[in-house]
Write a structure and sequence with these properties.
By secondary structure, the protein is of the alpha/beta class. The protein has 9 helices and 8 strands. The radius of gyration is 17 Å and the shape is globular.
Length: 255
């Protein structure tokens, strides 16, 4: 049975950010997630989650490091230590890593090498802290034109080069349906390095059941493949969040 976290950046926009953990709990969800921490009051968020009885499954970091660019190791390590300290406060085990847009005039291989080198600098801190890094591929056809990493196999190649137990993939079903399809076979092939999953339907990134993806089968495949992490409901509700989440749960085959 999938563990679900609710992305409070996209859901429950009807209420204040710090009221959203309680909204998730009221609907029976035990975890939330969000994007960056720069605009968040971490202590206030922790308090809101503790009162609601939900945990923070993931957030985006480390701040200030563009992975496709060369960075001094000291900068990368410092940023990772700051992110790890926040993860410790929030009791979060997964940090999502985006790599940035392609740098014009710089060879793709050099940019891939920079990603690998930056991740190798992040990895020892993550390993020491018991944190999993989830490197995200995004679609470049619709939402993120110019982003460097847009296929699962390319992300896997980078993860394999880093060769750290702390570094794996974020498999975003919405993005990868747009870019490559073949969802279930891809999950089976790469499940050993998938550290987090994101869910939204195609087209429009609305709740499961509004589009073309059979999410009951996708989540069943994740479960059968042995995936134990969270599946983040990261979608735009087609109407109000409460109704959309009830429909999403049904479409995903969840109780």
């Amino acid at each position: 049975m999938a563990k679900v976290s609710i992305c409070i950046e996209m859901l429950f926009a009807e209420v204040d950010l710090y009221e959203r953990p309680a909204k998730a709990a009221k609907l029976g969800f035990s975890a939330i997630e969000f994007w960056g921490v720069g605009d968040k009051d971490v202590a206030r968020m922790k308090g809101a989650c503790d009162r609601a009885g939900v945990r923070v499954a993931s957030f985006l970091g480390p701040a200030g490091v563009v992975m496709v660019q060369e960075n001094p190791a000291s900068k990368v390590v410092g940023a990772m230590k700051e992110a790890a300290a926040i993860a410790r406060k929030l009791d979060t085990q997964v940090i999502i890593v985006t790599v940035g847009n392609r740098v014009q005039g710089v060879a793709a291989q050099k940019q891939a090498d920079s990603i690998v080198n930056n991740l190798k600098a992040l990895a020892p801190v993550a390993e020491d802290e018991g944190i999993k890094l989830a490197v995200e591929s995004l679609n470049t056809f619709v939402d993120h034109v110019g982003y460097f990493l847009d296929h699962t196999a390319d992300g896997r190649a980078i993860v394999d080069r880093v060769n750290s137990p702390a570094v794996g993939l974020l498999y975003d079903v919405y993005h990868m349906q747009i870019m490559e399809g073949n969802l279930i076979e891809t999950i089976r092939k790469h499940v050993g390095v998938i550290n987090h999953v994101h869910i939204g339907d195609v087209p429009g990134r609305m709740e499961p059941g509004t589009g073309e993806i059979n999410y009951a089968n996708v989540l069943k495949a994740l479960d059968e493949a042995g995936y134990k992490g969270y599946c983040g409901f990261e979608f735009r509700p087609s109407d109000n969040s409460d109704a959309a989440l009830r429909r999403a749960r049904k479409a995903c085959g969840l109780r």
